[in-house]
Amino acid sequence: MPSYIVTLKDDASPEEVAAAKKHAQDQGGQISHEYSLIKAFAVTFPDDAIQTLESHEHVKAVELDGVVNTQ
């Protein structure tokens, strides 16, 4: 399963962040990392179910996780 970075809306409360994580897990996702500086988490998620996560009311963005390089 591919891994995604899920970013929550800036005004999401801790309860709303927890609800988004629970939603991801209920849809078959497995949380692999939780970020502390931003409201976000990494999740492995089936390709065919990612749209349900993107449409969650507290989710700002869902991006495919990948390697980032700087020069």
UniProtKB/TrEMBL annotation:
It comes from the Eukaryota. GO terms for molecular function: endopeptidase inhibitor activity. One of its GO terms (biological process) is vacuole fusion, non-autophagic. Coiled coil: none annotated. Residues 3-70 form the Inhibitor I9 domain. InterPro entries: PBI_I9, S8pro/Inhibitor_I9, S8pro/Inhibitor_I9_sf. This is Inhibitor I9 domain-containing protein. It comes from Dichotomopilus funicola.
